[in-house]
Amino acid sequence: MKGRLTSVNYRKPAYLLVLLDILGFTLLFTAKEYNLNVLYTGAAVLVLFLIMYTVLVAGRMGDKFIMLMVFMLISIGVLLLCRIDLSYGFRQIIWILAGGAVFFIAYVVYYNVKIWNSFWYLYFIAGTVLFVITLVFGDTVNGSRNWVSVKSLSFQPSEIIKILFIMCLACYCSGSWSKPVFGKVSPKWASLIITYIFVGFLVLQRDWGTILVMFSIYLLMIYVYEPDKKLLLMNIGVLAVIGFLGYKFLYHIQVRIANWLDPWSDISNRGYQIAQSLFAIASGGYFGRGLGNGSPYYIPEVHSDFIFAAVCEEMGVFGGVAVIMLFFLIAYRCFKISIMASDPFDKAVSFGVTVMFALQTFIIIGGVTKMIPLTGITLPFVSYGGTSIVVSFASLGIIQAISAKTERKEAADNEYQ
Amino acid sequence: MNINKRIIRVLVAIALLFLALASYLLWFNMFRADEVYTNSYNQRQWESERRVKRGNIYSSDGVLLAETKVDGDFRIRNYPRGRLYSHVIGYSSQVYGKTQLEMSHDSDLIGKGNISISLNDLAPGNDLHLTILDDLQEYAYDQLDGRNGAIVAIEPTTGQILAMVSLPDFDPNTIEQDWVDIMENKNSPFLARATQGLYPPGSTYKIVTSAAVYENGRTTETFDDPGVFKQGDVEVSNYGGEVFGNIDIKTAFEESSNYVFCTLGYEMGAESVKSEAEKFGVNKSLDFDIPVSKSEIQYDHMTDLDGALVSIGQGGLVMTPLHVAMMGAAIANGGRMMKPYLVEMVTTDSGTIIGQTRPSVLYDSVGQACAAYVEDMMIGVVEDGTGTTAQIDGITVAGKTGTAETESGEDHAWFVGYAPADNPTICVAVVLENNGTPGGRTAAPIARNIMRRFLSR
Predict the structure, then answer these.
(1) Disruptive mutation site among A328, A357, A359, A364 for chain B (greatest number of B CBs within 10 Å)
(2) Which residues contact B116 (CB under 8 A, 6 or more apart)?
(3) Of the ranges B14-23, B111-120, B378-387, which is most confident?
(4) Is the Cβ pair B25, A267 closer than 8 Å?
(5) Is A304 helix (H, G, I), strand (E, B) or coil?
């Protein structure tokens, strides 16, 4: 195992990525009636990639492949955003720039601060405060009250809360939070209560997608870390009961299930969005209609939640499968980092972040393809959106920091021997 | 170490989820995409339309049946023959979508993959050439004379549809204005009766039953017909309450004795009746140029008594007029049922043939000897049985009449027949819905006129 992470050649895939960017944006340039702005956007992506990747490699900042694959996804995302509406492409570049900065900040801060594992209550309080802010000042978008606007800038606090939640759980899972709360409630039950409080807030916001992600993270974390299997079974039982009651009594959930089972009967109304998504996927065939030849603008929200349908329409089902494989490979590398991490807190955090990333991807791709009921969340690194991109980069920074710690420790061990 | 093991398990689970995503996507594209794409809410279909001039449709005698007129950004689909082909060609409306040939041959008509020579020109779609003879179609339409029902004329040796009329109908030229009226009309003008109407075939179905009789080796039996078949709580009398007394099977067929055929069906048993029906394609879906309803025996569990009713084309048996025509054509073609088709060829706008339908055998329903046995009796029906009104001077006609009882309302009048019997070139099935007359009186003359018209061409 030792040394494998560094020994594989990372240059070739980097060249391929550069080639994809050049070809992709040149093709779009011709399809978009030779609008030079397309080329500028493409060049911006390429420059951002080269700078970030050079720093990453030169600074020996851990795994070298995740960033390659992430930029592959980002390139596909920006390409499609430019194709849908150039202004989205522009603004996405700005978010990537901000995300890149946050990536390095997260990396440096996480790498150097060694006492993350003792502040579970801070994460909990910060999360609760963010939730309260959302409820008080939040705007309702697409039926979910999960946006907060400050002047012209709006963001989704729930994206940040997910990271705080993972950090909080990791304190408990790694064993560094061992003292009972108020002298009575053991961390096992305290973390359970925190989970249910957070889920409760999300129910108030009607943000079903995030509930699904957060609760699954909790279940998988206790599956891996909690020796008491009864807790896991109990939680699954509670989830089943709540799910059933929700289906019985909550109109929002009934509509989602009904739309999933048969979007066609109410196609002009509630089934409209998913039907448009399926039309797009069906028209793409195996190889797609070609970049710039499709009509993704029929799909509502195509730039954010539904971007995968646009990928399938213009790049085909094979393009879609390729994107799915990229996501899986990223998840695989992250799992590997989690397995190799020696510090228990690092291990738990990287595991939680990886699970979040993988589940979020599965839920939204499954949703827009009508494999599972649709719950609106963004596709990491591909969808347009400031919060999504910045938070995804922040979690990537944490993962890279953990990976770098492992690599440097190994190198030091080798030297010592 | 235990923790790492469980992390790997989670990794495997995630891998399976992603694998499921990818497989689902491929499955969707393979088995669902076509159906989803052709949904009339999918604006993409009209997008491709904007860049092409939808192809024309011609009858086999070269008459223009459908064309597209371009007026700036507008496309007007024009049907010069009006209502005559409403249930064959259907309509193509930006508001209400497409039906029948306009839908099933959409990709031919918009010429998927055709490229225009210069950038400003519209790419031409491809043209369809039907097997239908416009002259015969119009004649058949006039013969039906506004009565509800259907006529199907088919060439027995190839399966080409020569004429296919269903009434009531609608005018595809004014579909958008008439939509609400048509939808609310209780006679359902949108139902293509020839292909999607399911009727009890009545005594015309004795054709299949007598094929079963031949195969069961019971051709030489004679019966004492008391006029009524009674078994359990089932009672079936002959048409008009006739009592035939001592008769053989041939006479029973010619005079259409329900007693004899119910008895035969009952004695041969449910299994035998059902398997014979399936040899002729009942209970099986038919792949045709336009949507077809499935003819079937609608029992969950069929008893011998049900078999008796099915043997005379009643009970749970329902068939489309197209299928009844195919049944007659199978006998005409020596027991081989040909696959019916409507589109003979697809050509580019410059006339290059890019697709041609070849006749193919659908089912080897019965052997030649069996077909000859049934044909002999069908000739008898027209010579001196219930179908004498189908006689044509100098030509031997074979046929079978039917008068199907319905649960609600009047009887359906049926006739299926073909000519010339020794070398059949046309087989015609006629059904007059709830007409209340015997098939020999009303349906048979219509079929005769159509065959005579065709043969004198």
Answers:
(1) A328
(2) B51, B122, B123, B124
(3) B14-23
(4) no
(5) coil
Which residue does chain B place closest to A357, by CA atoms?
B14
Global pTM reads 0.66
Q: What is the ipTM of this complex?
A: 0.93
Most B-contacting residue of A334, A365, A368 (CB-CB within 10 A), to test interface: A365
pLDDT digits (tens, 9 = 90+) for A301-321: 888 889 999 999 999 999 999
* CB contact B96 to A (< 8 Å): no
Show Cβ contacts of residue B337 under 8 Å, excluding neighbours closer than 6 positions: B280, B281, B326, B327, B329, B330, B361, B362, B363, B364, B365
Give the pLDDT confidence of B26-78 residue by residue, as tens digits.
Answer: 999 999 888 888 777 787 877 767 777 888 999 999 899 998 887 766 778 88
B33 CB within 8 Å of a chain A CB: yes
Rounded CA-CA distance A376/A301 in Å is 10
Q: Rounded to a whole number, what is the largest CA-CA distance in chain A?
A: 70
Q: Give the model confidence (pLDDT) of A132-145 as tens digits.
A: 988 888 777 666 66
- Phi, psi for A89 (deg, rounded to 5): -60, -50
